[in-house]
Amino acid sequence: MRYQISGKQIDVGEALQTHVKSELGNVMEKYSQRPTDANIVFSRDAHAYVCESTVHLSTGLTAQAKGQANDIYAAFDACCERMDKQLRRYKRRLKDHHRDRPAPVEFGGASAYILASDDGSEGDEPDTLAPMIIAEMETRIPSISAGEAVMQMELSHTPVLVFRNERHGGLNVVYRREDGNIGWIDPQ
């Protein structure tokens, strides 16, 4: 597994990096057999340290956790504990409902855009109907099942996930509805 351990205006020493690799490695070994990479970022929030971790698994899932404490090691331990809890819950779901995947998930490329919102009055007609794009970035679209897409959406704490359905190869969308349930769009 590849580790990227960094700090935002914090020097991350060798002892902390070794601690992160060993502890996170133990959690990954316990719950996921094939993690691909982990990104751990330490930062300060007033008097407290914050640790944010993102782990990409070969199953296509991305697990994210965040911990905060007055000590940098305690912040990482809180983050690692949350990651452990998340992976334990999702491993149970995978074990009960999904088959073992023989090969890593395939990803397709796509462009993602963030459009600027217009906070003007509703009665005014804009000069052009094309919205202003304020950010453009590349994103990956996984080829997974609908159940795995729901788990991925919950793990990454996002309201919407676009994925390629591995059953028929078409693009699908899962999203969190206002009533708290999950919606699934599967166009024919």
Automatic annotation (TrEMBL):
Domain Sigma 54 modulation/S30EA ribosomal protein C-terminal: 130-183
Keywords annotated in UniProt: Cytoplasm, Translation regulation
InterPro entries linked: HPF/YfiA_ribosome-assoc, HPF_long/plastid, RHF-like, RHF/RaiA, Ribosom_S30AE_C, Ribosom_S30AE_C_sf
One annotated GO biological process: negative regulation of translational elongation
Molecular function GO labels: ribosomal small subunit binding
Main location (coarse class): cytoplasm
Oligomeric form and interacting partners: Associates exclusively with 100S ribosomes, which are dimers of 70S ribosomes.
Function: Required for dimerization of active 70S ribosomes into 100S ribosomes in stationary phase; 100S ribosomes are translationally inactive and sometimes present during exponential growth.
Entry similarity comment: Belongs to the HPF/YfiA ribosome-associated protein family. Long HPF subfamily.
Entry protein name: Ribosome hibernation promoting factor
Annotated source species: Pararhodobacter aggregans
